[in-house]
């Protein structure tokens, strides 16, 4: 039997989010029922609530940075008990059989991962995300939040944290590596913290110097404004790795010129419009342009444990549910320091 729970939903594309209820399935034998305490606002929520990527399912309850507490467990659940502090990220299931699922790379599942919201579960029903009071998730797609992290600052790690941790780890960030993070927003600020904790020399490339003090405090060694053309001359050929978190189309040729020979520019931003690329930007320095999507379940747990060990939570602005629409506008204006997190007690 399904239960209706309180949520905030966009009733249609571009419509303001409003209070409503959505159904949650009965707790199955492998499921946990989670009382959601905090839900981060990712820029992906805004792209999707406004149907910027197309094919959105409405009404839509966004939210894939979920932190809460287990309040019920199914009969076959072995990993979690009532009272455990847990998180849910961008997906709640996948085929579990393909080569990627078997390797723990569920985000690249051949059948497509089942997104936490704006997706359809295996029964064909729409999925609803974290801007809600409760969620029912299979224990295999649930993460443990280590004791050292409080739930509010842990919530954004479930998307922003893992989306930066995964490429930084994959491209072997560490001592002696020069890494640039483009865009100091939700993803970018976690990138700075994590790359610094991994031992790299970190540079922030932001549109202006407005947030320079913060960037240096978060762990950056250098900070440059991309609005200043001198930045691109000064930093030409200097990075091993650049991770772009920018939510709008970017001049990738300009950023590729900042890589050393054999350097890589990894794009994680998901703009709604296409970008142009001059392939000579890659040829000259045997450079790589790559993409990366969140991270699988094992790597997400590894990231949470890494963040707890290094004391890395997100920098958050806690908001009430009735401030979500205003928060969306501020994210669109790059006026976020550095993640809005909804206190779900205010739903
Ligand atoms: P965010 O908090 O809005 O941060 C994006 C940052 O990009 C802004 O703070 C701003 O930084 C910079 N920026 C924005 N517009 C720009 C423009 N026109 N030109 C240059 N820089 C600009 O967003 P987020 O939540 O971090 O998400 C960033 C992007 O990643 C979104 O597109 C989101 O959908 C995507 N995403 C992808 C994945 C994945 O798995 N690949 C996961 C999560 C999110 P400055 O003010 O410092 O310039
Ligand atoms: Zn996200
Ligand atoms: Zn699969």
If you had to describe this structure to a student in words, what would you say it looks like?
The chain is of the alpha/beta class and 347 residues long. The protein folds into two domains: 3-159 and 314-346, Quinone Oxidoreductase, Chain A, domain 1, CATH 3.90.180.10; 161-291, Rossmann fold. The chain has eleven helices and 17 strands. It has helices at 43-49, 99-102, 151-154, 160-170, 186-197, 212-218, 229-234, 252-256, 280-283, 297-309, 324-332, and strands spanning 3-9, 18-24, 31-40, 66-73, 85-88, 91-93, 114-115, 134-138, 143-144, 178-182, 201-206, 222-225, 239-244, 259-267, 288-291, 316-319, 339-343. Strands 3, 4, 5, 8, 9, 16 and 17 form a seven-stranded mixed sheet that branches. It has a six-stranded parallel sheet with strand order 12-11-10-13-14-15, with helices on one face. Helix 4 packs across helix 5 (186-197) and helix 4 packs across helix 10. The chain is globular. The two termini are 23 Å apart. The model has no long low-confidence stretch (mean pLDDT 98). It is an enzyme of class 1 (oxidoreductase). Pfam families: ADH_N (PF08240), ADH_zinc_N (PF00107). Keywords: Metal-binding, Oxidoreductase, Zinc.
């Amino acid at each position: 039997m399904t239960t209706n729970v309180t949520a905030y939903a966009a009733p249609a594309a571009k419509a303001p989010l409003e209070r409503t209820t959505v159904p949650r399935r009965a707790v199955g034998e492998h499921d946990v029922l989670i009382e959601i305490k905090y839900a981060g606002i990712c820029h992906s929520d805004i792209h999707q609530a406004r149907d910027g990527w197309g094919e959105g399912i409405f009404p839509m309850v966004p939210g894939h940075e979920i932190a809460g507490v287990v309040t019920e467990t199914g009969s076959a659940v072995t990993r979690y008990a009532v009272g455990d502090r847990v998180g849910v990220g961008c997906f709640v299931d996948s085929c579990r059989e393909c080569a990627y699922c078997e390797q723990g790379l569920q985000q690249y599942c051949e059948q497509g991962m089942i997104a936490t919201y704006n997706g359809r579960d295996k029964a064909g029903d729409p999925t609803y995300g974290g801007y809600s009071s409760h969620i029912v998730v299979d224990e295999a797609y649930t993460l443990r939040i280590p004791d050292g992290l409080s739930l509010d600052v842990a919530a954004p790690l479930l998307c922003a944290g893992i989306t930066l941790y995964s490429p930084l780890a994959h491209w072997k960030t560490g001592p002696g590596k020069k890494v640039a993070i483009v865009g100091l927003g939700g993803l970018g600020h976690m990138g700075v913290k994590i790359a610094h904790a991994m031992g790299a020399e970190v540079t922030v490339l932001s549109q202006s110097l407005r947030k320079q003090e913060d960037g240096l405090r978060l762990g950056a060694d250098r900070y440059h404004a991309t609005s200043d053309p001198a930045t691109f001359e000064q930093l030409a050929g200097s990075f091993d790795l650049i991770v772009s978190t920018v939510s709008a189309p970017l001049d990738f040729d300009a950023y590729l010129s900042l890589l050393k020979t054999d350097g890589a520019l990894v794009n994680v931003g998901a703009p709604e419009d296409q970008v142009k690329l001059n392939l000579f930007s890659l040829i000259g320095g045997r450079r790589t342009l790559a993409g990366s999507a969140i991270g699988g379940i094992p790597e997400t747990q590894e990231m949470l444990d890494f963040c707890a060990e290094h004391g890395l939570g997100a920098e958050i602005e806690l908001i009430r549910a009735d401030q979500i629409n205003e928060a969306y506008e501020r994210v669109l204006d790059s006026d976020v320091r550095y993640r809005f997190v909804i206190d779900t007690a205010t739903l």
